Amino acid sequence: MPAEKSIYHPNPAISQNAYISSFEEYQKFYQESLDNPAEFWSRVAKQFHWETPADPEKFLKYNFNISKGPISIKWMEGASTNPVLQPPRSQC
C-alpha cells in the first residue's frame, strides 16, 4: 500500500453531467447530511414515488445513548414505495 494517497479526477465530460459534479459539491452535500439529516434526506426522498409517504414526525428517530435504552436508528417509519415505479434519474 503506497504511503501517499492518490487522487483520481474523473473525465470532465463525464463529471459535468453527474448528479454531483465536483468534490466540493460532494463535501457540501455531505456536511448538510450531517448537520441536518432529516431535512437533507427528506429532500432526497421527494425525488421518489411513495405509496405511503413518510410522516415528517417519524422521518428520523435515533438513540445512540445506551443509558437511554437500546441503540437504534429508524428512518421513514411507516413509509412504503415500489422501486419499479421510480422515475429515471434524468427526470429527478
Automatic annotation (TrEMBL):
Protein's recorded name: Acetyl-coenzyme A synthetase N-terminal domain-containing protein
Molecular function, one GO term: acetate-CoA ligase activity
Domain named Acetyl-coenzyme A synthetase N-terminal: residues: 26-82
GO biological process: acetyl-CoA biosynthetic process
Species of provenance: Drosophila gunungcola (fruit fly)
Pfam family, one: ACAS_N
